[in-house]
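Why predict the complex rather than its parts? Because the way molecules touch one another can change local conformation, and only a joint prediction can capture that. The input here totals 1225 residues.
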Amino acid sequence: MAESTVVKKGRASFKIRVEPRLNEPPAWYPAAVSFGALIVALILGGILISLAGGDPIRSYLHIAKASFGDSGVLSDTIVKATPIILAALACSVAFRMKLWNIGAEGQFIMGAFGASAIVLAPVLPAETPRIIFIPVMMMAGMAAGALWGFIPGYLKAKFNVNEIISTLMLNYVAVAWVNFWIFGVWTEGGFQMSPKFPATASLPRLLEYAEAFPILRGLTTHLGLVIGVVAAVILWFIIFRSRWGYEIRLIGDNPHAAQYAGINITQNIIWVMMLSGALAGLGGMSEVAGVVHRLQTAPVAAGYGFTGIIVAWLAKLNPLVIIVASILFGALILAGREIQPSGVPKMIQGIILVCLIASDFLLRYRIVVERGEE
Amino acid sequence: MDFTIILQAGIASGTVLLFATIGELFSERAGVLNLGVEGMMLIGAMSAFSATIATGNPWLGVLVAMFFAGLISQIHAFIVITLQADQVVSGLSLTFLGAGISLVLGEGLSKAGTVSLLPNFSIPLLSLIPIIGKIFFTNQSILVYVGYLLVPLSWYYINRTRPGLHLRSVGEYPSAADALGINVFRLRYFYVFIGGMLAGLAGATISLAVSPGWFSELTTGGQGWIAIGLVIFAQWDPIRAAVGAYTFGALRRLILDIQGPLVLFGFANPFYYNPYLGFFLQMLPYLFTVFVLVIGSREAMRKRIGAPAALGNPYVRGERGK
Amino acid sequence: MTKQPSSATEIPLIVEMRGIVKRFPGVLANDHVNFELKRGEIHGLLGENGAGKSTLMNVLAGLYRQEAGTILVKGEPKVFSSPRDAIKSGIGMVHQHFMLVPSQTVTENILLGLDEPRFIMRLPDYDSKIAELGERFGLKVDPRAKIWQLSVGEQQRVEILKMLYRGVDVLIMDEPTAVLAPQEIEGLFITLRAMIAQGKSVIFISHKLQEVSAIADRVSVLRKGVATASGVASKGVSRQELARLMVGRDVIFALDKKPGKPGDVVLDVRDIYAENDKGLPALRGLSLNVRAGEIVGVAGVAGNGQSELSQVISGMRECKQGQVLLGGDTVSNRTTLFGIQHGMAYVPEDRTHVGSAPNLSITDNVIMKQYRKPPILKNGLLDMKAATKLATELKQAYDIVVPNVSTPVRLLSGGNLQRVILAREISGLPSFMVAVQPTRGLDVGAIEGVHRLLLTQREAGAAVLLVSEELEELLSLSDRVYVIYEGKIMGEVMVEGREQDEALVDTIGQMMTGTPLDQIQNEGVAAHG
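Output of the joint prediction:
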């Protein structure tokens, strides 16, 4: 690809040439490109909002104010960001191996189901102390999510079944599965929701400590944030410092080379899909135990798994950057609820992803503008 | 239950999948994987319904749907063909984008009421054939008949015509095609556009014929993804794609209709008396898609049938070091 | 420009290229190159790998656009923006990598891109036309066959037919003999001469001196993008002179190879059968062995099972029957890891797609086979400091030219990448190494370096299996050579002391086309086994 176009502008002529990069760009460059893509996406989104009859500037100002304006909304933003962190971590580890797990949504829902089953079945009685309840729910959520990741992983490893389709299909199955339980078995008064969880089965929130620290009054940020951040740090170590992480990176970059290096690819497909599912499942657990406090489809299957895809991509699959990117998207979702028309946040997410992918071009090629010779 | 009526409705419902599947098939035959089918279908369904309300003319609705879905497919085409980005991620982003835009622009459409729909009619003579005539040729939407024509035409076009030969070459070995003066970039853009238009037609088939109306994302309910799965099952062959699409359509109808009667095969219908068991029925099309993928993938492994060789790879002209 | 054709211009020029400049990022591939082709001649275009021969001809064939310079065809200036334009002006090119769609028939491939038929294709009508055309030029091939069913030689004929069907006057052949056995090369030469007799002209690109001397009427030479000779009559110039024009210095053909002292058998391949990617038999009862301290060559035309052989040995391909023993242990049908842990090194044919992870750093690439054990693995985690240290040491020891070891390997040149791979494989101190086409696509300096490394391995007592399509390379490095044909060994010859023996080359050539050694009536080529 070495095309050139001559642009004539008045007298001076410029030659624009696109050529592959032969050197590594400086470290700040990819981040700058992603940031630029984000800005372009917001501008494009603004144009579409105004086409749909809205006022883009007011919408964006509203988003900023409604998500970062004071400690209360900031806390709400973080609450929204928590499930996104875990879902994005789930996507990032699978994507790192070029496993297109589009099923974080379903694994998230199954995680919520698994954790809820501990409360609702009930596996543990309501009076179980929190210190036991919460870890058991975490394990159950991760196990259920891992199972939901195992199925497509096994099918991919064993029969070469396209994981994009299988994970996506399992999302729909997960929703129907949870609906069956909350409608048919655990229904509260015929509504499509389970009874409320006991206090021992919920994650501690900042507002619980408001008596000692009045500044925390009304803050809904819960322990899930800590779980997410710890998970991100652990995942960073796994990817960049462990033997397994090295294998994941190698398979992701070139499976033939990985096979040549003696790495068992089929086994890794299954393990990585299970890890991915477990992370998403943990997200589902954190959401039911920290926010919803009951099993209910709509607030759980709210698309965190899909947002996770975009966030993972925006963060270039880096677990630590995911934390920051998730907060940005948490803000967008939180504030977006009040924006009309209601599809705006989803649309902006789509535009951001489109711009991010397009901007990757600038990492692989450089655009050279030269003065023409006439 | 009258199975011919279920199958008759199944064919109509399968027509949606048929259009989307054939559209994706064309795009993939040219070497471009487009995972944005669901998004393009939503755009199609929304714009068809919206345009029909505005003008009262469903034909115009169909054209508008095909145009806009085709247009949005070109975003994907630009990103993967010109900018050479990953086709998987770009296709996903198109799904988000299509869903988002159709939600924003379709705001309020669900309350817009009814519109004039595309005509249904029976084919003289053919409809008189026992059973077959009832299922395929009686009181179907005109789009269903369009679907019948599309299948053999697509097959003939791909396998027996000059442009079809070019299409296959571009998906199998683009640099060979390029060396002989075939414009790989232009053809890929073109077939992605065809794929988009057919996805738009699929969307319009839903909102103007099969289950009229606009119900946000529920309008398509994942059928775009099923279509992508069907292309793999079909092994990139239009005839097999038709078999898959109609089977799935029938399955979808069956699931809806099985919950109606009090008695099923001489027994009390469990789905009628325990409606929540219906959630298991809802899972079926999705589980069946996975099942079909397993079958298709195993067969492909055994017979060593592959996807078009260049599927998923950007074409870079005159790259050094090859 | 050092030489000009002495005799004048009674034969008209059909192609004239003047001052062609073509730049690639970081490389000046053609630096004001002039080139002239006369009607009815075979014109050899000589040069090393990377000298810019293919680039120059890709410009003429319309695949690349030159940055400066003009092209005249039959005296008229032409601007080609695509190969189609060039073909319209009567210039067609047969590329080194065939441009044929494997899943389509010969006829379909030939009709590709033409304006006729307009829409509906009635293939049988065209099948007979193509068969006729093939007959005229001695290019026999079944028009209804699918490309993947054809041998490499037949595919080349399809490529030539493709251009003849389009009525080209000038045929550019890019390294056409690289994929052919000596006897097939003779067939190609007959075809080319038949074309000349019917008024066509041929440009024959090669880096092999003897071939160009044998077939070409005139020769042009490129070195590092610059023409060092233009249209010299091939009769009036010696091979040594051409070699100097190509390389810029005298070529040293002799390598410092010490007499071999073979030890015990390290690799023992016993009667193995395997299939290729299409499920067709690729290896049919192949046996060979390699001893410690010797280099054993595998000669053969590309596609006769060489790749599958190396894959079965390294554990990357299923062995249907028979077994491979490494130091007494069975390695066939075990994991690749088993071979690695038992001292096997593997330099794969495909450097970028198999041998390396392009977007990972040099450090990540050199630890590929050592990350499972100390010092890289420490307390269950990877010690990146130790890995960087190893990479830096290897970078110095193997002259890998790159600013630092965190550079992703996709940015490396072919020679540097091959050094990274060899460094990694050799640093594991292997007892056995299989190297497939280790010098393909490298320049002369890099080739010498690779050859030295392989000889060092031999002297260190390792067993080396060298698979190559370059007969010269095999003869200068190997102690013994096996010849492979359609998945079977045709015979085994000792090389020592007979590196320049024409009779030996002839025997190997006959085996490469399928005559077993015991049927070759040739005194003085006695061999054992």
